[in-house]
Design a protein that fits this description.
With 234 residues, the protein is an alpha/beta fold. The protein has a single domain, classed as Rossmann fold (3-Layer(aba) Sandwich). It is built from eleven helices and ten strands. The strands form two sheets. The chain has a six-stranded mixed sheet, sandwiched between helices. The protein has a four-stranded antiparallel sheet with strand order 2-1-4-5, covered by helices on one side. β1 and β2 form a beta hairpin. The longest helix has 16 residues. The model has no long low-confidence stretch (mean pLDDT 93).
Length: 234
Amino acid sequence: MLKLINVKASYGKVGVLWDVSLEINEGELITLVGANGAGKTTMLKTISGLVRPCSGSVEFLKQRIDKIMPHQIVEMGISHVPEGGKCFPDMTVRENLEMGAYLYKTWKQRETILENVYQMFPILQTREKQLARTLSGGERQMLAMGRSLMAKPRLCMFDEPSYGLAPQIVIQIFEFVKMLHRQKITVFIVEQEVKNALELADRAYVLENGRIVLEGSSETLLRHDHIKKAYLGL
């Protein structure tokens, strides 16, 4: 479904990604793990068109997307939830969700899609008239994830969905990700919570200093000596 081929990306003269290649098959739940500053967020931004690669290519459903606009990438079926669950703070919960359905094909179905989102996140329905800035951190993350579903994506990308949240809320967020996977939505999740992320995923990639240094099944990586020492403290 998604393929990165020898992607290099930078901010000005500062290189961030170096010859990164990875593949995600339809229906998979893939995680990307790595330390702060490894380039994980830049990779997601490169896929969603917010950062242009210096070289290499990004393909989605066998079409190159590294030279098209971000809104066109959304139209093709990719949703990107940024770190921290970014919302429109002075809009209501419902208005935030409707912003996710701005595409013509989804705007016509927004009421039906909205009901599905409320079934996944009942708390959002009870808060639908509240301004987003009045929500807790966990509720804002749920709102951002719900908004991403309003576009009826084929691939959902989540950047550090557990960031800054209480442990109990993190469990709920990961349960939601599992639910999406069961519904056959392809998921690409970036996480610092390495153990939880690996236990969640089918396969994983490890990014260090802008390069993929390991890849494989989650079970294999959980047993890998480098992962144990560098990320799990074992």
